Amino acid sequence: MQSENNKKLIAYFSMEIGIDPSVQTYSGGLGILAGDTVKSFADLKIPAIAVSLLYKKGYIFQKIDEKGNQLDLPYEWEYENFLKPLKASVSIKLRGRDVQLKAWQYLYKGASGFEVPVIFLDTDIVENHEDDRKITYYLYGGDEAYRLLQEAVLGIGGVRMLSELGYDSLKKYHMNEGHSSLLSIELLRNRKIENINQPETLSDAIARVRNMCVFTTHTPVPAGHDQFSYSLVEHILGDYISLDILKRFAGNDKLNMTLTALNLSRYINGVAKAHGKVSRDMFPGYTVDSITNGVHSFTWVSGSLKKLFDEYIPEWFNDPYSLRYAISIPKDKIWKAHVKEKAKLIKFINSQDGNKFSEKVFTIGFARRATAYKRPDLVFMDIDRLARICSLHGSMQFVFSGKAHPNDYYGKELIKKINNLSVQLREKINIVFVENYDMEIAGQMVAGVDLWLNTPKRPNEASGTSGMKAAHNGVPSLSILDGWWIEGCIEGITGWAIGSVADDSHSSDEKDAASLYDKLEFHSYKCFFFQYSQNGTAVCNKCICLLIFSEKSKYIFTI
Known about the structure:
This protein is of the alpha/beta class. The protein is about 35% helix and about 20% strand. The protein folds into 2 domains: about 5-290, Rossmann fold; about 295-535, 3-Layer(aba) Sandwich (Rossmann fold), CATH 3.40.50.
């Protein structure tokens, strides 16, 4: 009888996976997407296994001090309470030392009972040198050498661990971003290519590996793709593979992880239609398809909306496509469900020191990784106009959240700026920055705010799925036309666009801010107050997001 391990046909590799709020192996969008993908594997009964690293000190535990500064603290979490240790062990030579890897497993079970294992690799074992034990401590921590060490453990060590665990029937290896692309080199080495002298035989080995690999790229700017000097590669990997062979796939000047994945994958995709085009322009000569990201519906629908969907759309959690029938749900019931979730969010916000948010005030949410191109401060570009809108229509309040990378100075300055504005504008506009953003806070925000705001500099948003999560809870978006929103925006129905697709592809702060204020003042704001009329029971018949957009699914895990 075939073992369960031999039934798995797809290996899904990701540097981070957000599978559970308590499993601190994610930092943001990439990890949440990976977790939602794993859950969708289980729902669709796709025979997959996922691989990542075990970060015993997590990403960062974010604290905001009294001056608005982000403090980066270790995130100690009780991983042994959530993960099961496995007996298998493999080794990889790094910096001239044999580094032992062990594995931990998280078993995700879908609604039908179908299980998808997630393997977390760990170097923190007593047999290893003290420096090597730290390789899997921090997500995105340390310098370039630390990053390459982690990516070697993920790609090379991950392939070896799957083999050791008995996953012998794998047909496809999916690289979620370029971090894991060394897995393709390991697959080549397993074909003994260093001992192959005939070009035809080497070409055949390359063709076989390419047929096994799928690559999803998420980054729309060249600077976001990992590259390492070959001197560092030699220091870390030693004689793992000859540089002549490596340069054939990874580039002549540096080891380019994205280029490696591009050259050794049969199928490549971006994560939105616009991002697919950006990727094709960035990597001319490669065929880059596009599959727009999605979210795991059952995870991100709030409790109040779940009850409503259960009543009107039975079995929606097994068939998310059926959510298109949400348009038939009485709108006053959607609004009442939203009001319940908003009350929960306001209670949570007010449990923080000094906050006095109101359930009856128009509440705008913004939660992203804090970095310059996402422009969380764009809405405050013209404070006088923002205050004037408030004086004309009534109060508004803002809830922000998101972490800056420990090395992102400008991201941290943006957090400080927003916190300082919350003090300066206290008499005019209520602003709160919720510290230590995670999956649980995200769930409360996307369900509880009245409007979801997203203001990235175009064309830097690869996809951006937070607005999708808001949409699942009946919350419209006010967003730059970039990433998925180009496809999801139906003006005045699913939300509102900042700017126009006819504009130049690159954003202008001044033009975008002006458009933001216009849409806020003349559209979304008025819609909100109509909803609160007649004792809060009337809902605008036009301007509420009803999940009516849906793209036809495409599956890339063809065996």
